[in-house]
Amino acid sequence: MGSTAKKAVILVSGGLDSTTVLAMAKKQGYACYTLSFDYGQRHRAELNAAHRVSGAYADVEHKVVSLNLDSIGGSALTDTDIDVPEGETDGIPITYVPARNTVFLSIALGWAEVLGAQDIFIGVNAVDYSGYPDCRPEFIAAFEATANLATKVGVEGERITIHTPLIDMTKGEIINTGLELRVDYSQTVSCYQATDDGLACGRCDSCRLRRQGFLDAGVADPTRYQ
């Protein structure tokens, strides 16, 4: 990567979507600074996966920021007393983590400003929409407006852009895009309740969406299941 490459902060969870976004940003020629969060989630497997995929795509730096979102709880992903649902649910699911993407994007924005990066990538998706309010285009547009009001770089006339390249894609389309970019999806972890070594449950919402995506893409599912 040459020194003239534009810098971008890529939010990387270790899952299928964010790994695809990282590959897309690299293909576009960005110098990729990847950002993950140890926020009190149920398992370490996704952080291990985030480290793996960041290394695989030759990022400039991979940063893990610690947050104690489990201290406020309110989600099956941060409170072990709340079971992860294994059947379909109506409305906003209990796996929604209150304000998570708002918090994550805010820290990404701070790092971007320090780096002199004007581009932030996040793998939110509104087609295979799971009911999360912070995955909608309206939220991203509102956050981008806030980002440009709240920062020194925005006030001085530069523009921060929040990129959501997956926002209108189906899971099958995301997988096919990633495969064209040689993404190894066996290295990713999407499961809400994976084991410490990354084995997926095959039953949660995230596992079901992921499995259907591989079916729709017409390719073998490389996920390692329990």
Features:
single chain, 226 residues, 5 strands
Structure characterization notes:
By secondary structure, the chain is α/β, with parallel strands linked by helices. The protein has a single domain, classed as HUPs (Rossmann fold), CATH 3.40.50.620. It is 36% helix and 11% strand. The chain is built from seven helices and five strands. It has a five-stranded parallel sheet with strand order 3-2-1-4-5, sandwiched between helices. Helix 2 links the parallel strand 2 and strand 3. Helix 1 packs across helix 6 and helix 6 crosses helix 7. The radius of gyration is 17 Å and the shape is globular. The model has no long low-confidence stretch (mean pLDDT 90). It catalyses: 7-carboxy-7-carbaguanine + NH4(+) + 2 ATP = 7-cyano-7-carbaguanine + 2 AMP + 2 diphosphate + 2 H(+). This is 7-cyano-7-deazaguanine synthase. Keywords: ATP-binding, Ligase, Metal-binding, Nucleotide-binding, Queuosine biosynthesis, Zinc. InterPro entries: QueC, Rossmann-like_a/b/a_fold. Belongs to the QueC family.
Q: Give me the number of helical elements.
A: 7
CATH domain topology: Rossmann fold
Q: CATH architecture, please?
A: 3-Layer(aba) Sandwich
Instruction: Summarize the helix and strand pattern as letters.
Output: EHEHEHEHHEHH
pLDDT average, as an integer?
90
Radius of gyration: 17 Å
Strand content: 5-15%
The counted number of beta strands is 5
Largest sheet: 5 strands, parallel
**The CATH class:** Alpha Beta
Give the terminus-to-terminus CA distance: 38 Å
How are the strands of the biggest sheet laid out side by side?
3-2-1-4-5
Shape: globular
Judged by helices, strands and strand pairing, the structural class is alpha/beta
Could you name the CATH homologous superfamily?
HUPs
Residue runs with pLDDT of under 50 for 5 or more positions: none
Tally of separate domains? 1
- In helices, the fraction of residues equals 25-40%
